[in-house]
Specification:
Bound molecules: zinc ion
Distance between the termini: 18 Å
Number of helices: 7
Number of domains: 1
Order of helices and strands: EEEHEHEHEHEHEHH
Helix content: 25-40%
Shape: globular
Strand order of the largest sheet: 1-2-3-4-5-6-7-8
CATH architecture: Alpha-Beta Barrel
Number of strands: 8
Strand content: 15-25%
CATH superfamily: Metal-dependent hydrolases
CATH class: Alpha Beta
């Protein structure tokens, strides 16, 4: 029996590690590799790449096309970023469109959120999604974490786990392991590093943590039609 793999729930760089399952992000129009048992994908329009509504709509159509593939298991990354200048209303519209695609295609949503947690909460309340929502690169404070947790939202942690005074570390320590994932995002190294730090912060063994996150990943499957 093979040992339990690491899960890298959100990556921007190709990883080909025997012990890791990766969900790599692809942008509209980008291709992806044939399935090797460990390479999954997410497809979405990042809030940093919002354009005119015509162009955004064309890209949303491209995203919907790749959602037909079983290997593309998440919708996103998508979301809201108040640090981005420009049309915030259009950002919101595009994010909402992703949330609807997630419901329609029965795939979890992977979310980029900067200074817009209240809007995410509001949209979640309006939509009542059946699909899990995962906040990636999570760095919210305990108060917002409690609010999101109550709504059933899941959390992915990356490099901020190494900043011991960060909101991410405080929230990570607070959350039950059933609600967490790890990610490399822009980092070129292995997600194993985040797991090791995560085990230290929770004062638990790496094996128990790996098993829990593997279980979390498999539970996403129950709510979606993806291959996993
Ligand atoms: Zn990302």
């Amino acid at each position: 029996m093979n040992s339990i793999p690491y899960i890298d729930i959100h990556a921007h760089h190709i990883k080909n590690l025997k012990d890791t399952i990766t969900v790599q992000n692809i942008y509209p129009g980008e291709g992806f590799a044939a399935f090797n048992g460990r390479n999954f994908y997410s497809a979405g329009l990042h809030p940093w790449h919002i354009k005119s509504s015509d162009k955004n709509n064309a890209e949303l159509i491209m995203i919907e096309e790749v959602l037909e593939y079983d290997q593309v298991i998440f919708v996103g990354e998508c979301g809201l970023d108040k640090k981005v200048e420009g049309n915030y209303e259009e950002q919101k519209r595009v994010f909402e469109a992703h949330a609807f695609l997630a419901e329609k295609h029965k795939k979890p949503l992977i979310i980029h959120c900067v200074k817009a947690f209240n809007e995410v909460v509001e949209l979640h309340k309006n939509i009542h999604p059946q699909m899990p929502w995962i906040m990636h690169g999570y760095n919210g404070n305990i108060q917002i974490t409690k609010q999101l947790e109550k709504m059933g939202i899941l959390f992915s942690f990356g490099k901020n786990l190494f900043k011991l005074d960060s909101k991410a570390v405080a929230s990570y320590k607070y959350l039950p392991i059933e609600k967490i994932f790890f990610e490399t995002d822009e980092y070129f190294g292995e997600v194993k590093k985040m797991y090791i730090q995560g085990a230290k912060l929770k004062n638990m063994s790496l094996e128990i943590l790996k098993k829990a996150v593997w279980g979390n990943f498999n539970r996403l499957e129950n709510k979606s039609t993806g291959l996993f």
